[in-house]
Amino acid sequence: MAADRRIVIENCAIATVDGHDTEYACGHLVLAGNRIESLGAGSAPEGLENVVRRIDASGHLVTPGLINTHHHFYQWITRGLATDHNLFNWLVTLYPTWARIDEPMVRAAAQGSLAMMARGGVTTAMDHHYVFPQGSGDLSGAIIGAARDMGVRFTLARGSMDRSEKDGGLPPDFAVETLDGALAATEETVRQHHDASFDAMTQVAVAPCSPFSVSTELLRDGAQLARRLGVRLHTHGSETVEEEKFCHELFGMGPTDYFESTGWLGEDVWMAHCVHMNDSDIAAFARSRTGVAHCPSSNARLAAGIARVPDMLAAGVPVGLGVDGTASNESGELHTELRNALLINRLGAHREAALNARQALRLGTYGGAQVLGRAAETGSLEPGKLADLVLWKLDTLAHASIADPVTALVFGAAAPVTASFVDGRQIVEDGRLLTADEDAIARATRDEAQRLARIAAQA
Ligand SMILES: [Zn+2]
């Protein structure tokens, strides 16, 4: 779309999630090309030129697009397995199946994962992919291609594992890469796909999997690689008590100290989970501006515990929301995680003061942009930022009688998405994807899940 072609959205409630939590009970937005040109109370200004579309958004709340900060797309085809396990038992049960994935399976799983999130209001997705079986094809290319085709802004966290059972790690020997192989492939992926520009649709991060599946050298060298290439760092941290015990036994220190010793605290780093953090761990994250991807449903599914999100926010830690892989969160939706984050944190130490609806919305939008390093570009509705936004329909049975639109979105049932825009382009209309065929994706993911199950059973 040429930069001067405008779309006007009017008569809607707007939650900007800007620095002042500015909201309009009835307002307008003007999109110009892939940017938000202006927004405010009341109707759009008269006399705008080149308006190609005018949307009457009565009955809607417009928010920034949701931003997912932790996921494993390939798990879309291993949902519903090991449903009553803790993290380590779940991993050990699933590794042998995961080690059989190939390019068609990963492509279908990525399409399924992206479609589920996109039609629920996600405009920026990420995939932490760390299983690269030998001879499995161009998995990174397949994932990035799926995101590009769907029109979703995307960060690929190129993962890796090199600490298998023979080195005291958790994954089986056949599921890992070598140290040098993982580093070289990660560098190649960054060079091939990372786009550093303001409106980049694809970025790449360096993402060794977790302390119990990668060597100390891979963490240390991975951090150096990311800083040499100018990209971000991502991993899992402090997810379970078992991980904490593992770190104390192998390294003589807890996870946060171990990460610090390997160069893994910093404003260019974000970590998934961070459930088992003491006061000094949280202070270290705040001091270093290390980000957190909070994954409430996955943490509940695997009985990992409740992350101390209110304490992190009070300390100034950047926090976003994550679906996590769908083998530990079968729903694969992010808009329902706003509600789950709010409710689960209220079961923690801060009770009803833990999180409110605005804070939950901020986690899923601006907080996500912060941890992905894209807060200047997306995550809030402000003039000059990218046109990544969602129109939530709140005037039907599920929401019409709820007092306030942001409360309706967060506390209420999963709200229908009337329209979702990424980079100024509409990708969802009335809850259906405009950029992909959901039914075809459903069939392909079922077929690939069955093919993987057959191959795993023969192994
Ligand atoms: Zn994860």
TrEMBL record:
Domain annotation Amidohydrolase-related: ranges: 61-425
SUPFAM superfamilies, alphabetized: Composite domain of metallo-dependent hydrolases (SSF51338), Metallo-dependent hydrolases (SSF51556)
Entry's Gene Ontology molecular function annotations: deaminase activity; hydrolase activity, acting on carbon-nitrogen (but not peptide) bonds, in cyclic amidines; metal ion binding
Keyword field contains Hydrolase: yes
Keyword Metal-binding: yes
Transmembrane segments: none
Family matches, as InterPro entries: Amidohydro-rel, Metal-dep_hydrolase_composite, Metal_Hydrolase, MTA/SAH_deaminase
Pfam family name, one: Amidohydro_1
Keywords of the record: Hydrolase, Metal-binding, Zinc
Protein name, as recorded: 8-oxoguanine deaminase
